[in-house]
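Shipment paperwork, digital attachment
Item: protein structure file
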Amino acid sequence: MTERLKINNYGVEVRRRARQRSLRLRVTAKGELRITCAKTVPKREIFHFVTSNLSFIEQQLEEVKKIREQFPAKRFVEGEELLFFGRPRKLRVVSGEKLKVSMQGGEMVLAGFSSDENERREAVRKFYRRSGKKYLTQRLEFFSGLMKLRPTSVSFRCQSSRWGSCSGEGHISLNWRLMAAPADVIDYVVVHELAHLQHHDHSPRFWKLVEQYCPKHKPLKKWLNDHQWAFEFLAAPGSEE
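Attachment content:
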């Protein structure tokens, strides 16, 4: 359940989750405010939570502004670097009949030409989506066998703030934008969601299970939090595929 509020001239997206116990405030890589909380939290409590954290919000927004200046938006042209498996890959544009992206000798190659930036962006997104579905399926199969935990079904989406989810019915969803992250970070997310098949919370038992199959999960989780901006070039505004 998602709703949008206006608090102290800030647009705030509120996401209510069944198992959430505390209020959490996050400033996204796009400079948007997002709160996650339990379904029963009243609006007045959310208003108070935001107004009591204004200094934190302003500090975070300033940090986002600096990051944006350091990492400008991609235009998907010759020579730009795009993250793939956590490493910057130079984009090379070559002739071709149809816009299509592939990896060739460590470079990301865009075959075909289009003067439309959105078309070039979509060609890159299709490559990551295609690669993500294939690779994430492989890693999910690997860890499912290792952990002896199998989801009832699997889907792949492009969410702006969630790398994965596991429903009470055992359905796992993974974000294909993870293909921009290092391989060990991807494995952490896969293990994290599979562990939720056994423990539907973030209790000590849950983290013990995660640690059993991903001992270095803490720095990997931190990498995701510290590199929000790194995935923005794959975003489709207003879309959660």
